[in-house]
Amino acid sequence: MERHLPPDLHDLRPRGRRPGRAAAPYALLAPGGLWLILLFIVPMVAMASLALQEGSALEGYHLTWRFANFADVTSKNWEFLLRSLRNGAIVTVVALVLAYPIAYWIAFYGGRFKSVFLFALLLPFFVSFVIRTVSWSFILSDDGIVFGTLKSIGLLPEDYRVLGTTFAVLAGITYNLLPFTILPLYVSLERIDRSLVEAAKDLYASRAAAFRKIVIPLSLPGVFAAILLTSIPATGDYINASVLGGPGTAMIGNIINVEFLRARDYPEAAALAFILMAVMLIGAIVYARVLGTEEITT
Amino acid sequence: MNAVATETGVTAARAPARGPRRRWTRFLLPAYTFAFILYLSFPIFVIILFSFNDTDTGFGTAPRVKTTWSGFTTIWYQRLFDIPDLTTALEHSLLIAFASSLVAAALGALIGLALARYRYRGKGATNLVIFLGISSPEIVLGAALASFFVSLGLPRGLGTLFVSHVMFSIPFAAVVVRARAAGLDRSLEDAAMDLGAGPIVTFLKVTLPLIFPGILAAWLLAFALSMDDFVISQFVQGPSTMFPTWVFGATKVGIPPHVFVFATLIFLGGLVLAVVQILVSRRRPT
Question: Residues of B numbered 158-197 whose beta carbons fall under 8 angstroms of chain A's beta carbons: which are they?
Answer without folding.
Answer: 163-164, 166-167, 170-171, 174-175, 178-179, 193
